[in-house]
Inverse folding.
């Protein structure tokens, strides 16, 4: 495809739409939206070469605010739609976004199975512990025993550990960010998009209206006199990168460390890159079967020129 | 399609041959080999299988129907029964205390017919309770031993016990007098290269068994079948519905096929996957049908022709994805729904036409989609091909209704007319400038279709959503926009109805006016067509209206044809008469008689004849038929 605009630099403004952003004042989503726009800007990906795919919920509105191609899909189905989109045109940068209810509840099957494929896409989860748009019910990440202000009773279901699930599912880049630390979040999104393979980024996000437990003050640790969020990369010995992808011992060792870090809860929550490994992508493997895909995306192949005479003859 | 009733089968020239045995016992290979040998001899062949949802051991049977003239259906009588086990003969009542799943096939054999079975079963011949059929006990293992000995492999019969199928097949071929050289040729084609040794053994088994049967039994079964003289042999392609549909999809430029394994749809996807490398097709096995449909919607939005194939239980999961495709005006996907017996898990490996109303109402809310229901493999081919053009032209999901009977039966297919196949990608947006120029993905137009931009294109950026949206694709709940968008989407049905040629919508077979009009759809077309000569024998004039497009429904055409009929008999394979309900809803016309079948088996020709005769002669509003 001729790249008429490739020569010039895109401004940050070009990644923004004129749509009114209808999130509540103080919503953590603003930080994530801004980080996504800044990451695209830093990477200078032409807006028309990006497809943003979202689920349903407050986070689902993100594509309307980012001036790229966008599909605001169904509750929990962002990943399958993103998968189809990427298979159709692997030259596009495909970023899926959704909430924690969307991704870990109704879309849990797709969260799990997308980890098995390793398509070169990025999945960002806006994790605030509640279903905001339906007025604050417990989401799959809300810990057992908690009761936000709109819940009639405390939750008696355990909260899931999405980092641990992602490790088991096979994601090849796993990270966690904080919507309130935009600078760090931008760097994580940039790295996640650059990673070849499926990158999964869970983002702690406050819901000032419905989650009165996981507030800005709580994350800042005002009650314990110390920030709850700790950056993994502040530990000089922290190295999430698998050096020898076919060395199972190293893979397991790195995953065990990441798993331990993911289970630090309460007074210490880790953010940063938990795990990364370079493995063949789904597209790489598909191109081994269909070599034309090495040079062109599926959408550009001359599929309307197929000759079926031979196939019909095989049934004579 | 000429519209003429082409069936002219002389019952005396037709052979109905059934091979039965345990699932996994190789009956498919033997029956398909036989069917191919018949087709090679210039005969019209039709072969259908019945099997349990089970991997190994349960009773399954394969029926091969062949004739020198066109046939589109099977009879439920048998001229030659070939049994690999005792259950094929007498059913499973001895093993099951209650509700036997079948009573065997001996009672289905016509007078003068033959039964080949294993002499080693040592069955007392009085158990057959049939004086009017010929019994041919053949010692399968002993004959196999003879065949292997002739190849210098004495004492190996037990080692090669799987070839007892070929022995049974060979014995039946010897008895009906079919050309063994044609069968040998097909066997050799089936076992090539490293399997050539197996070819020799199978040929020897087939020929030794044929000779054994001829030498030991002087009385032949009444039905004898010969290949046509070489000069009169037509060039026959013989395939299953899953193949016809898959090849049509390849020709239509399919880029992505998604699927989740489910009977009877899986074979289509597996065949497509086998063709992927050669034809640049991507096939992905999804984690469930929700993923299947949504992957296909995502790909369709990116500009790739996308499809998914499933059966009723999977289609039930696709509801929201179809609504999503419709409201976002995706160009597709095309969904292939291979119906099986419902409801719920129902009868996974059996056939039924009970998903029509579901296909018409697959999701919540009012939205446009197309539903077509081809009745045979040629229609399946052309409808499948054209469905992708419709998906692109109208930017709507298209649903192709098929069933297990079409999926897994072998049909003789006429030559595909390639000149009829033209790809039309519909209206595309060509940006005048790579900069933003106010492109509106859902621009309001008179025919409902807005030019679509292919993502990746500079200047064509859009975002769209499953929420109600404005022409730019952004969420809005305003009433004016809502009304305009509902009308914009729904008017596409009128556009489609106006533009799609009538031949894709319906066909009237037989005279324009008749004493009785048969009304049906889908795979029962063959049995209905073949039943007409028998129904006309009493002097009545009979025609058959086959409806192929269910949405948009061809209201005027159907009203005109049915309005002229003095008596309408609805024939369909479900409990409630789902096409009848649609016809009444759309035209106000209610058929006087309904012939229904919901035993999970396809209509046989004689069931149609019996059902229609009973409905008319007994003045029954509803007749249920089940010979299975």
């Amino acid at each position: 495809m001729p790249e008429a605009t490739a020569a010039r630099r895109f401004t940050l403004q070009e990644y923004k739409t004129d749509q009114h952003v209808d999130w509540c004042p103080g919503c953590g989503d603003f930080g994530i939206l801004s980080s996504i726009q800044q990451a695209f800007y830093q990477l200078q990906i032409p807006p028309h070469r990006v497809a943003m795919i979202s689920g349903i919920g407050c986070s689902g509105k993100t594509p309307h605010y980012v001036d790229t191609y966008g599909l605001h899909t169904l509750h929990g189905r962002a990943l399958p739609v993103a998968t189809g989109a990427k298979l159709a045109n692997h030259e596009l940068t495909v970023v899926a976004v959704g909430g924690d209810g969307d991704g870990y509840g109704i879309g849990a099957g797709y969260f799990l199975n997308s980890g098995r494929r390793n398509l070169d896409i990025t999945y960002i989860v806006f994790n605030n512990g509640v279903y905001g748009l339906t007025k604050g019910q417990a989401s799959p990440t809300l810990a057992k025993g908690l009761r936000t202000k709109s819940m009639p009773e405390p939750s008696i279901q355990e909260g899931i550990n999405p980092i641990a699930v992602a490790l088991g599912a096979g994601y090849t880049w796993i990270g966690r960010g904080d919507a309130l630390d935009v600078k760090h979040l931008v760097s994580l999104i940039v790295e996640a998009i650059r990673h070849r393979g499926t990158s999964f980024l869970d983002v702690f996000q406050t819901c000032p209206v419905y989650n009165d437990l996981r507030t800005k003050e709580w994350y800042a640790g005002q009650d314990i006199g110390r920030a709850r969020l700790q950056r993994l990369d502040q530990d000089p010995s922290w190295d999430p990168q698998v050096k020898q992808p076919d060395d199972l011992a190293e893979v397991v060792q790195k995953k065990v460390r990441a798993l331990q870090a993911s289970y630090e809860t309460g007074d210490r929550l880790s953010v940063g890159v938990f795990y990364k490994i370079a493995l063949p992508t789904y597209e790489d493997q598909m191109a081994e079967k269909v070599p034309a895909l090495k040079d062109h995306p599926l959408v550009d192949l001359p599929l309307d020129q197929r000759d079926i005479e031979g196939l019909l003859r095989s049934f004579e | 399609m000429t519209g003429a009733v082409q069936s002219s089968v002389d019952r005396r020239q037709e052979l109905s041959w059934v091979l039965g045995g345990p699932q996994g016992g190789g009956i498919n290979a033997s029956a398909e080999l036989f069917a191919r040998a018949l087709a090679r001899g210039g005969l019209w062949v039709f072969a259908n299988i019945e099997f349990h949802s089970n991997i190994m051991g349960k009773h399954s049977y394969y029926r091969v129907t062949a004739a020198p003239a066109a046939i589109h259906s099977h009879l439920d009588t048998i001229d030659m029964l070939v049994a690999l086990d005792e259950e094929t003969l007498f059913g499973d009542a001895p093993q099951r205390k209650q509700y036997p799943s079948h009573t065997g096939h001996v009672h289905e054999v016509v007078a003068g017919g033959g039964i080949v079975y294993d002499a080693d079963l040592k069955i007392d011949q009085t158990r057959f309770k049939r004086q009017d059929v010929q019994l041919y006990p053949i010692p399968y293992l002993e004959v196999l031993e003879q065949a292997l000995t002739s190849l210098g492999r004495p004492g190996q019969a037990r080692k090669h016990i799987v070839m007892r199928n070929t022995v049974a097949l060979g014995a039946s071929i010897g008895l009906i007098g079919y050309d063994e050289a044609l069968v040998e040729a097909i066997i050799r084609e089936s076992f090539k290269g490293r399997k050539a040794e197996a070819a020799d053994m199978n040929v020897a088994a087939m020929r030794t068994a044929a000779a054994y049967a001829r030498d030991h039994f002087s009385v032949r079964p009444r039905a004898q079948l010969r290949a046509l003289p070489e000069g009169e042999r037509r060039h026959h392609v013989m395939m299953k519905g899953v193949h016809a549909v898959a090849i049509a999809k390849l020709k239509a430029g399919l880029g992505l096929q998604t699927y989740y394994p489910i009977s009877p749809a899986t074979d289509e996807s597996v065949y497509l996957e086998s063709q992927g490398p050669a034809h640049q097709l991507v096939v992905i096995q999804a984690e469930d049908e929700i993923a299947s449909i949504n992957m296909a919607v995502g790909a369709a939005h990116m500009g790739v022709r996308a499809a998914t194939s499933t059966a009723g239980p999977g289609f039930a999961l696709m509801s929201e994805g179809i609504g999503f495709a419709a409201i976002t005006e995706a160009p597709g996907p095309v969904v292939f729904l291979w119906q099986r017996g419902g409801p719920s898990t129902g009868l996974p490996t059996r056939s039924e036409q009970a998903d029509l109303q579901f296909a018409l109402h697959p999701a919540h809310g009012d939205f446009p989609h197309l539903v077509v229901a081809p009745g045979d493999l040629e229609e399946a081919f052309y409808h499948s091909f054209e469905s992708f053009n419709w998906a692109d032209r109208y930017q709507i999901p298209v649903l192709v209704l098929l069933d297990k009977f079409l999926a897994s039966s072998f049909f003789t297919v006429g030559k595909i007319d390639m000149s009829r196949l033209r790809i039309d990608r519909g209206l595309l947006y060509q940006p005048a400038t790579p900069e933003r120029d106010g492109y509106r993905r859902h621009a309001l137009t008179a025919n409902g279709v807005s030019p679509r931009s292919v993502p990746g294109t500079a200047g064509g950026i859009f975002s769209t959503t499953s929420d109600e949206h404005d022409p730019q694709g952004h969420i809005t709940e305003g009433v004016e926009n809502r009304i305009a968008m509902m009308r914009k989407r729904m008017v596409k049905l009128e556009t489609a109805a106006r533009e799609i040629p009538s031949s894709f919508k319906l066909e009237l077979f037989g005279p324009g006016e008749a004493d009785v009009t048969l009304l049906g759809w889908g795979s029962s077309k063959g049995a209905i067509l073949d039943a007409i000569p028998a129904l006309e024998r009493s002097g009545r004039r009979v025609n058959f209206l086959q409806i192929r497009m269910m949405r948009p429904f061809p209201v005027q055409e159907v009203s005109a044809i049915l309005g002229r009929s003095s008596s309408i008999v609805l024939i369909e394979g479900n409990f409630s008469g789902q096409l009848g309900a649609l016809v009444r809803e759309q035209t106000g016309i209610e058929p006087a008689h309904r012939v229904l079948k919901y035993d999970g088996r396809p209509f046989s020709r004689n069931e149609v004849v019996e059902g229609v005769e009973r409905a008319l002669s007994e003045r029954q509003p509803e007749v249920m038929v089940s010979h299975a």
